[in-house]
Structures
1.
Amino acid sequence: MDVDTRLLRYFRAVAEEGNLTRAAARLYVSQPALTKQIRQLEERLGARLFVRSKSGMALTGPGQALAAAVPGVLGSWVEAERAVRAAEAERTRVLRIGFLASAANEKTQDVIAAFRASRPGWRVEMRQASWGAPIEGMVSGEVEAAFMRLPFPSREDFALLPLLTEPRCVAMAANHPLAQSASLRFEDLLDEPFVAAPGATGAFRDHWIAAEARGGRPVRIGAVTEHPDDWLSAIANGDGIALAPASAARYYARPDIAYREVEGIAPSTVVLAWPNTARPTPALADFIAAAREAAD
Amino acid sequence: MDVDTRLLRYFRAVAEEGNLTRAAARLYVSQPALTKQIRQLEERLGARLFVRSKSGMALTGPGQALAAAVPGVLGSWVEAERAVRAAEAERTRVLRIGFLASAANEKTQDVIAAFRASRPGWRVEMRQASWGAPIEGMVSGEVEAAFMRLPFPSREDFALLPLLTEPRCVAMAANHPLAQSASLRFEDLLDEPFVAAPGATGAFRDHWIAAEARGGRPVRIGAVTEHPDDWLSAIANGDGIALAPASAARYYARPDIAYREVEGIAPSTVVLAWPNTARPTPALADFIAAAREAAD
DNA sequence: CCACATCCATAACCGGAGGTTATCGACGCA
DNA sequence: TGCGTCGATAACCTCCGGTTATGGATGTGG
């Protein structure tokens, strides 16, 4: 029997959510479409996968068997995709590197320059990773490695090489009252609304609201933004303030935004990350070596 | 990126055949359909997978990478399918057992009876395996095990339990001249046309034309049949003769067909086969135990 | 107790993807 | 030079996966 990986993703979403409506929303399809697809999957497999009730969808025995096997199928396909893209990059002498907007800094340029020197004729293509799904491009092989910032989600499948550590500062509208002071303590910011990234979940979100320094005090979200430009605009508009690495003051300098030192929060670390599911391609190995040299 | 396993099978066929037209024939689709699908796969992956030439399709580097990864993807999906069907069979208390038509005999009944005794409330569903693709049903989990005859293709992924060994005889039209003799030597049959199974390839085909006893003399195929009834009809019609296990004389007795002993050919062995990719389900384990008891 | 919210199923409709047949252009070969 | 074989292209049809709108069943709060 044939299946589409899309169908397996649908199944996985429903199994995880335990709810057709929510799963449909998560997959960006309509609920009837999901209903139809799940029914079809059940028919073709000749087994009921879920028991329907008013309070959602619960896995049956066969459903659990499928749920246990699906990650392996999807994983092996993603790996296949990665292998193809790696081979294509090798053929065209291109190394695709992703980067989180905030991870752009001088070190990045040093690494690329060193790689270029070691591999003349090769091109490095940089593509910005979305804040919402920062590691997606890496698992599917769209990029072979990426400059990211700690904390890094799902550390297990990736190798990490720390490049530099820098203090974090606070970004706020230039006309914000707190911008008067040249330096601030984090306690001064506790009541301010923050501008946050969208998919920022778990440890990553906690890090950028400095949860460890809040002592359990909740944070107020003034705006959620997807791209650096939106982020800067939101801050300039006064929707909220945000923590940022010190280098942002150089790379995202604007007249309507003030960056100020902050005492009492941990610094931020930039890393180079790459999937360690397979051996790195020779070109990537050179890039990693260049990064290792450039690291502090 | 999403794919259909069908598309991966298409790719695999083209990679193996090295030729679109032949691959299309093997897949039972038209050649333009395959052209379109392969093109689409290349576009979506952003890499050329084949170099086209007058003499066919040759894999590129990315194509080789994909070809290496595809068996893993398809294999894990087949395994998932098998797990689901096994769970469903467990739930409905059904054990599905396949059998090659020629493997039906008294021993089969003994095994089933012993299993029934050990698992009251369970049902055994027998379904006949096609001669063309005898092990298909087992890999996809449509049946959990099957009664087969040696030689068994692709032995590696299956566990085999021999059940009985019996001499082989020859089946021919009742009015065939050779039917006059009560017993024959295989050399007498060398010039006769044979009735063969369709997908009979390699060792299996060799076994049923007794290639080892022919001393290199080629065989003439008088007819190719898919089902036992066709097979019997072809023999009765005089299209050819065929080797058969001795038990066929009991299970496929017809007035217009004569079975005669043959000297000088090896006997045939019936085995119970099951996939050993995963641990057998408890019910299958009981069935295997029943078979082990019933074995000679 | 009734109005409402939630959850899944159903119906009717639409566009596109995948299949088909027919045909072409390029090349190797007898 | 004519034929056979290869893959590409065009025109067409069917069905599948998506959409919106709506219904039925079942908790739930004012």
2.
Amino acid sequence: MLVNALITQRDLIAERGRYHAQMTSMPVSERLGSHIKRAEQALSATKAAVLRPAGVTVAQYSALLHLSENPGISAAALARLCGVTPPTMNTVLNNLQDRALIERTPHEWHRNVLETRLTDAGRAVMADADARAVRVERALAAEFTDEERAALAGLLGRCVELLERERP
Amino acid sequence: MLVNALITQRDLIAERGRYHAQMTSMPVSERLGSHIKRAEQALSATKAAVLRPAGVTVAQYSALLHLSENPGISAAALARLCGVTPPTMNTVLNNLQDRALIERTPHEWHRNVLETRLTDAGRAVMADADARAVRVERALAAEFTDEERAALAGLLGRCVELLERERP
DNA sequence: GAATCTAAGTTAGAGCTCTAATGCTCGTCA
DNA sequence: TGACGAGCATTAGAGCTCTAACTTAGATTC
């Protein structure tokens, strides 16, 4: 380790020793939120890295994935599936549309609704990206037993319930 | 439920039935990544909501928290603690500095390093925000037994290891 | 039939995030 | 001593994300 890094590291440890007593009301390592955030950061970073060669971002892949399973869905419904707000989805879809990976056509009955669909190019990109993303998911799944996977999914589900209940 | 929503919902189900066969190589519900992402989205949304009255974003709170535990730390080291890149931390710190919640002073020995510290105002905002954030963490912790908390943290830790190993 | 309500789509603005690239300081090593 | 390498800080540019606000279309209700 180099001296520059050592010095900031040394300062850090010294200050930590001095002030560690009771700066915050809960140690970071005991916060479940920290673990969830770290896991998501690692997931995001890895997915972004493997999706890069496919030419799509994580958000774009998420949209393409749900779009491939729900052709003609509205942008608002797609936003709900992806867990983002309509303006966010609008941003993502505009980028996909600029690259001609999707098309948006007026709904036959409801003038206020746009049907969103993959183009042929979009389907091709989606297939490539999906293969790459699934490779990561399979590696992740292979790390655990069936019981562990179920436990993790269950615990995370309870987190979501609690957090949504707790939201003002 | 209204007709507008019903129609998109109906279309969705119809299309799903038609195409469900084998559009993707792995069902979304079986992807551990989906569960992690959902949990982080719920966490983020709830934390943003409870931090809003304190006048800070989640990213700003994260920086203030680690800053309060490590006075004088460099921006790069702070970025590592928060799990973001230096340019990202620079953006967050600029916003905090504009509001006079932090100050950055040249390092005594190393001309190339800036020491970052909370101002008095920053400490006050941090104390307020921390109380609000910890309330959420306590509620989250109270949802689980000691064994469940340990299991969740352990499983998420293994996810992080696998994902970093898998990253090209 | 008109007021009201709900949902879809959009725009504006603020903030976070990344990669890529640059300039700087310092330490190491030949 | 001088070249190299590593780390810090910063800028530029693209993209994602949110809230707030507006517009429009369709449905409900009186």
